[in-house]
Amino acid sequence: MTKLFAPYQLQSITLKNRIVMAPMCMYSAKEDGLVTPFHLVHYATRAAGQIGLILLEATAVVPEGRISSNDLGIWDDTHIEGLQQLVTNMQAYGAKTGIQLAHAGRKATVEGDIFAPSAMAFSDAYKTPREMTLADIDNVIEAFKNAAVRARQAGFDVLEIHGAHGYLISEFLSPATNKRSDQYGGSQENRYRLLRQVIDAIRSVWEGPLLVRVSAEDYAQDGTTMEDFIVFSRWMKSQGVDLVDVSTGGVVQADIHPFPGYQVPHAEAIKLGANIPTGAVGLITIAQHAEEILQNNRADLIFLGRVLLREPYWPLHAAKELGAKIEPPVQYVRGW
Ligand SMILES: Cc1cc2nc3c(=O)[nH]c(=O)nc-3n(C[C@H](O)[C@H](O)[C@H](O)COP(=O)(O)O)c2cc1C
């Protein structure tokens, strides 16, 4: 039996296989952050392609926390209906559904003020953010909590907190972007405080599987390293996080040279060092490669990004390659 196509128990839910669609912004909402017909087709197609768990793209918990004005939103009750429809469409094909709750911090490109732990712009092309007050921080924690309630109402199976890629939470985690002198800056414990409080707030309203995506390395001298994330992941585990989705980079401008599986060592180190399940992501496109990562216990789930933009039926092809038997949607059997 292949491991890629073996079911996986993620806390209370069973995934039919270990293939996860990584969150990918489609920048296809309008200013209002509502689901559009594009999203309905896009996500349902990947569900028909037999992906085990589909994570919706970064979805903003407040309007000023959008990467762009075309991001999906979950800051208002009006968002629930469209998200609910998306969930229903994906579940129709046996996929489990998740949503990535996000705040873009200093990488927001929307109108008006933007916010970050410290008043430092990402680059010349970005606005300088306002340093968040303690009241601003409390509001963001509350926004993540309210978003979790809305996600539950929409029927999602899984929540993922976006703690990666230089968006708000990862800006707090990294000493390269967090220069605060209060209880949210300085020591590892202080830089982790916002994520700790967001997890606790979400856990107070959400009992289901909870994932956190991290950038486990900044590729910068004054940034975080994998060792920091082993410590952070131990804390996440003690707070009831079920799996760490391990990405890297995006916090500061850095020269990164990706190659197939370049982030797998990070997933492996966190899995071993913090004794918590991890997801591996980054240029994994070949079934045998995915199987190798799982068989060698380097990670527990395989997250696929760009390959699913060009091959929504990747799982069906991968099953053929690995000699696993899975069923296409009943309507398509004659074509398979
Ligand atoms: C179009 C696009 C949009 C993305 N949007 C998000 C996002 O919303 N949230 C996130 O955590 N990562 C995002 N990513 C990163 C992917 O989830 C993934 O980690 C990355 O593409 C590496 O995996 P891959 O080599 O399989 O594509 C995005 C990537 C792409 C290509």
Task: List the helices and strands in order.
Answer: EEEHEEHEEEHEHHEHEHEHEHH
- In terms of quaternary structure, the protein is single chain
Shape: globular
Q: What is the tally of beta strands?
A: 13
Q: Spans of 5+ residues with little confidence (pLDDT < 50)?
A: none
How many separate domains?
Answer: 1
Helical stretch tally:
10
EC number: 1.6.99.1
Organism: Lysinibacillus sphaericus
Cofactor: FMN
Keywords: Flavoprotein, FMN, NADP, Oxidoreductase
Task: Report what the structure shows.
It is a single chain. The two termini are 21 Å apart. This protein has a single domain, classed as Aldolase class I (TIM Barrel, Alpha-Beta Barrel), CATH 3.20.20. Helix content is 34%, strand content 16%. It has helices at 37-48, 80-91, 134-154, 168-173, 188-203, 226-238, 264-274, 287-295, 307-310, 314-322; strands at residues 8-10, 13-15, 19-21, 53-60, 72-73, 96-102, 115-116, 130-131, 158-163, 210-215, 243-247, 278-281, 301-304. By secondary structure, it is an alpha/beta fold. α2 crosses α3 (134-154). It has 10 helices and 13 strands. α6 links the parallel β10 and β11 (243-247). The strands form 3 sheets. It has an 8-stranded parallel beta barrel with strand order 3-4-6-9-10-11-12-13, surrounded by 7 helices. A two-stranded antiparallel sheet has the order 1-2. Strands 7-8 form a two-stranded parallel ribbon. Its EC number is 1.6.99.1. It comes from Lysinibacillus sphaericus. Residues 3-322 form the NADH:flavin oxidoreductase/NADH oxidase N-terminal domain.
